[in-house]
Sequence to fold (349 residues):
Amino acid sequence: MEFGMFHQFPAVPGCGDAVSFAEGFAQIEAAEALGLDVMWLAELHFDPERSVLSAPLSIASAIAARTRRIRIGIAVQVLPLCHPLRLAEEAATVDQISGGRLIFGVGRSGLPRTYEDYGVSYAESRERFVEVLDILEQAWAEPPVSYDGKFYKFHNIRVTPKPYQKPHPPIRIAAASPDTYPAVGARGLPIFLNARHGSFAEFLPSIREYRAAYQAAGHPGRGEVYLRVPTYLAETETAAREEPRDSWMHFYREQTERLRDSLSRSGTRAIEGRAERLKRLESLTYEEALEGQVLIGTPDRVVAQLRELQSELGIDGILAELNCGGLIPHANVVRAMRLLCQEVMPRFR
Fold:
């Protein structure tokens, strides 16, 4: 099983951006020393109370220069907001600087307001996503690239540099809407699942659809599934449950407000079950959250939860969100990471 940490360089209340960057890089250095497999970087825009991580490839380049071993993942690059040729150049540059340690996660994002702020129609996000991904794969794998699409048209472009990894860095796709799962399976790429609330078992029908489409298309293996999940570890069950309480409830309150905002925007009310998720979140208690899609407890408890997920869903790895909500003190985040790396990971190797 692959073990990664999902990081959004959270804003530290009462402190400036410099503190957020300093703590973020300190945690990355700890992850490198502790042997964590992957550091995953979010892409978040125009939300200064939440995060300073708006430029994940810039941060990825800094990580590549500061580390030698840990892989660097993007979770996820919002493709419809990017120009594909510029993105191909920048991601390939990071892959070269890191010596082939980049994992390129991509998605459409779930925040219509960001699209509005960038002047891009959210209704076009699916079509734009497909075009940008098609162009990226061609630009990395082929000497010249030509494309004639709805949004992008160009002829005989030679993108440089080419990635260190051949034909290109591993690509993973965030799956959320029901039709995404079979589409990604047919394409033969791994998927991310984003844990929110409810039961992990709710993912099973979609995972089955993804893997059925993957196998029907003739791809080797069964199709890889990676789970981004709120995670917290401590030496005792009481500490594990109580220490993240304020931060996690802050996260769920923020999610409620973002969903409410999304539903107020044109063309989004029926998308991806948002109204149903909003109803769940509005009444969610902390005790209910702890019984849902989270990994929490002592290392022994988290090991048991992961083994259950392997058996039930067949997951191939996790993106542990060790500071879900962004309010957990730096020292506690590093301690949780140490427990994950030293007492959980070895039992899956």
About this structure: The two ends are 7 Å apart (CA to CA). DSSP finds 13 helices and eleven strands in the chain. The chain has one domain: 2-245+286-348.
